[in-house]
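Minimal example, chain plus S-adenosylmethionine.
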Amino acid sequence: MENFINKVFQGNTIEKLREIPNDSVDLGITSPPYNKGEKNKGWLVKNVLYDKALDKKDETIYQNEQIEVLNELYRIMKPGGSFFYNHKTRWNKGIMLHPIIWITKTNWIIRQEIIWDRMIAANIRGWRFWQVDERIYWLMKPQNNEAIGEELLSKHALLTSIWRFPPERNNPHPAPFPIELPTRIIHSILNENNGIVIDPYSGSGTTLVASKLLKKNFIGIEISEDYITQSMERLENFNKEHKKVQEEINKHFVNKTFKERKEDGNNTGKFKNTQHEENHILTKENSLFD
Ligand SMILES: C[S@@+](CC[C@H](N)C(=O)[O-])C[C@H]1O[C@@H](n2cnc3c(N)ncnc32)[C@H](O)[C@@H]1O
């Protein structure tokens, strides 16, 4: 594995993944190209045009490619490892294309569907309520045929299944995610443990910079040399992005863990979490104690 660690590989994702050994990576995060068709979106919304990749494929070919990539990621993931797959619902001539259609055809277990509230829509018309959400699928490779997996620490689980991060604005890449997003994932899943984090469509290197700041090893794959150059510059100057990563880390805390609350006998009724940017009510029904 030494040959792969802390590098960004230029090339086609599926081909590069095939070179990585079985059961060798701890965690993955990605936002693939969405196959949005590259249609002219009108005066209000900027088109997403990648440097070296077309985002306009026959939808069946696109979905089959994504299945192949996800299964290859499954092969290289250690048992018990997780992959976070960011995508969104799209519509083609009024028919919804939901990512769950192809995710359920892969080998992965779906551990959770997280809603990413981006707080901004790419709509300019009102055919539907403006779509501010994307999805993040937490996928898991079972260990010893066991599909439940390890429990998150309370300080991470309390961040809930709706994540509100505005899009990244200070990045010339056409579709970067904000660094808070991979930071939340890496910190929640690996916490203080070491590990290798892969982003198979690494773009401007956001996942890689978050991994470096959190002292994890990383592997990036990206087709565009220009985006790789941008990633290398970011990785060299990684400390410049320290503040946003630290602000995200500061959101992961609890005054009392679930276990302590239960031991104190006050796990019934409502638990109002005022520690984070929003107030979430956790009732007995959705507490970690089933
Ligand atoms: C949504 S962007 C990822 C952005 C990244 N999360 C970031 O924060 O910068 C998808 C990336 O996939 C790359 N890409 C598209 N097709 C590819 C392929 N077949 N192999 C490798 N990379 C590809 C594009 O160049 C683009 O940078």
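The two ends are 40 Å apart (CA to CA). Residues 35 and 62 are 7 Å apart (CA to CA).
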